[in-house]
Design goal:
By secondary structure, the chain is mostly helical. The protein has two domains: 149 residues, no CATH class; 144 residues, no CATH class. The protein is built from ten helices and eight strands. A two-stranded antiparallel ribbon has the order 1-2. A two-stranded antiparallel sheet has the order 3-4. A hairpin with a 5-residue loop joins β6 and β7. α8 packs antiparallel against α9. The chain is globular, with a radius of gyration of 19 Å.
């Protein structure tokens, strides 16, 4: 039965592959058929990450394609910024009405995820030449996180939509009412999501590993120090020990209290919070406050 499921998932994954011979990059996975049969930063990156045991080349192809479309100018209409990884690519005639252009960069998590995936691809055996060629894109992504993602200098990546186009919320929970406080009040940007800070921390640690592998120990030390600083600030700002022992779903500098436990902290990955807090986070998932009663 398991073998049958794996064969079907491999087949379905293959059906979503897109190869663009004119792009000068390997294949990537579309976000979904039929309406999302195109490149999505977050979806394509996460799918390539989960498919690493199957084909590390898929992650390299995805990263190459995204690097070629990486933000360069500042364009408020599409939210393009130097170093930012795109959210969605559309070629249809109506894309300008919904996205502001053929490409929308209104995603807060795709940029750190791209660096995170590059490091993970290296760990899974990506060839040195491919990994090295993507380092400038990774460095531009981390520069974006520092210069544009962190809006108020607190080390966290935040978001606030620049236009009336695209989703209000720029994480994976992007419906209009997806982010709220513990009393159910809707959150208003500027917002820092807990899982995005985990992606950023993992990106910094991953880039440090790559720096070490390619002969730059000084950069590795600087990146690890930056990750340690982020971890400390994360615990101070997000942690909810009085609730269920997990981080809050989100924080906002202009809101006194956003204490909202959620399952999103499990997506923090290998970044924040530190290892010592993970047993508490895991036990918090089975807390009665986290039980909706419907699965």
């Amino acid at each position: 039965m398991l073998a049958q499921v794996l064969r079907r998932t491999e087949s379905d994954l293959g059906a979503l592959l897109i190869r663009d011979e004119n792009a000068g990059a390997g294949p990537f996975v579309a976000a979904g058929a039929p309406w999302f049969m195109t490149l999505f930063g977050r979806d394509s990156l996460l799918t390539a990450w989960m498919a690493l045991p199957l084909d590390v080349g898929l992650s390299i192809g995805t990263l190459q394609r995204l690097a070629r479309l990486q933000g360069r100018p500042i364009d408020p209409m599409t939210e393009e910024q130097p170093g930012r990884i795109l959210h969605e690519l559309r070629r249809g005639s109506g894309s300008g009405d919904s996205l502001g252009g053929v490409a929308c960069y209104g995603s807060v998590d795709a940029t750190p995820l791209s660096v995170m995936l590059l490091a993970e691809s290296w760990r899974w055996g990506a060839d040195g030449g491919s990994a090295r060629s993507l380092l400038p894109a990774a460095d531009a992504a981390l520069a974006w996180a520092d210069e544009y993602g962190d809006r108020d200098g607190d080390c966290f990546i935040e978001y606030q939509r620049a236009t009336t186009c695209g989703p209000i919320h720029q994480g994976w929970k992007d419906s209009f009412d997806a982010i709220n406080d513990a009393e159910g009040r809707l959150a208003e940007p500027t917002i820092a999501l807990c899982d995005v800070q985990g992606y950023l921390c993992a990106a910094l640690l991953g880039r440090a590993e790559l720096a070490e592998a390619f002969g730059d120990p000084a950069a590795a030390t600087r990146l690890r120090d930056r990750a340690d600083t982020l971890r400390g600030k994360f615990l101070k700002a997000f942690w909810l020990p009085e609730r269920v022992g997990t981080p809050s779903l989100w924080m906002a500098a202009n809101v006194a209290s956003t204490r909202c436990p959620a399952t999103s902290p499990t997506a923090c990955g290998p970044g924040s919070p530190p290892t010592s807090t993970r047993p508490t986070s895991l036990s918090g998932l089975s807390h009665e406050e986290m039980d909706s009663g419907v699965g």
